[in-house]
Amino acid sequence: MRILDSIDDELIGQLRRDHEFFWLDATDLPADEIKRLGALLDLHPLAVEDSMLFGQRPKLDTYGDTALLVLQGAVSSQPEDRNIHPLEEIHCHLSGDFIVTLHRRPYPDLARVVPLFSNAKTAKSEQYHVYKIIDVIVDSYFPMLGDLEEQINDLEDAITSGGGRRELEETFRLKRLLLHLRRAVVPMRDVFAREIEVIADLAGLEADSHDYFRDVYDHLLRINDELDADHEMVTGCTDLYLSTVANRQGETSKQLAIIASIFLPLSFLTGFFGMNFGWAVTHVFDGPWAFFGLGLGTMAISAGGMWLFFRRKGWTGQDG
User: Superkingdom, according to UniProt (predicted)?
Assistant: First the structure.
């Protein structure tokens, strides 16, 4: 199989005349170049129009002997919740003579397939090459999901340790990212579940095994399951955060209640002696011992007694 990275009219024409299968991988082609490529490869005008506009939902459209497969590949970044470009839309034009992959930005995962094809010691079928290109795009989600799982675990630890608004914002960013990924994966899963046999049966595409594309479908099922599990974990983080906030509020309320309870008898004592101040200074407060012993002493005993009572009840501890 020949691998091309630019549009060479003469070479592509020669390859088509010789019915030699080739792969053209192009990045950010302008509209006129896509039109020229469509005319050179006899692509359907609707397929050319889709690749000029991009912004397509994952799908598989067949046009006679050619097909357009739109995929969304994952673009990993650290940290994932701040990834501004988590997905790359890739248009795969397929026929029995070629596979063309078009994307707006460079996609390193596709570059990893080039040595595999170039260094192959045995000839592989055309269907195998198509499978490997599709497979590497689908498998790009696994490293991202691994990073997301670690990030969610770290987020849970941070929330348990007393996380604040920053952790809550990170939780919402992760939830939005997971929903964004799921909106890309679910349509691809549906395409491979219902229509992927169309690719295996394209006219002129050397047959090998339909198991290749069933393997891609299995990978998409795993990715979808992991996305669902990660979404549940992030939802659990939200519940954990709200529970932590409620516990902190409860702890604060308990501390304020203890303080108010201690000052309640003190307020009673000061109010009682204050209202009876005239009688007290005449009959009770005779000398400093009465002020310190009877006045301050009763308040100290009252506060100490209340504190001991709370300690015995276990209300003064963090888990009380």
Answer: Bacteria
Place of tokens 């595999």: 116
SS3 50: helix
Closest residue by Cα to residue 67 from 26, 88, 97: 97
Dihedral of CA 222/227/232/236: which sign? positive
**Closest to 102 measured CA to CA, from 34, 42, 153, 192:** 34
pLDDT of residue 320: 45
Tell me: do 111 and 8 sit in the same domain: yes
Q: What angle do CA 50, 74, 116 make, to 5 degrees?
A: 95
- Mean pLDDT over the full length of the chain: 83
Does residue 268 lie within any of the structural domains? no
Q: Tell me: the pLDDT tens digits for 74-132? A: 998 888 888 889 999 999 999 888 999 999 999 999 988 988 888 777 777 788 888 89
Q: What distance lies between CA 200 and its chain's CA centroid?
A: 32
The reply to whether 48 and 154 lie within a common domain is yes
Q: Quick one: tokens of 295?
A: 């006045």
User: Are 26 and 115 part of one and the same domain?
Assistant: yes
List pLDDT tens digits, range 150-163.
Answer: 999 998 888 888 77
Give the gyration radius of the chain's Cα atoms.
Answer: 36
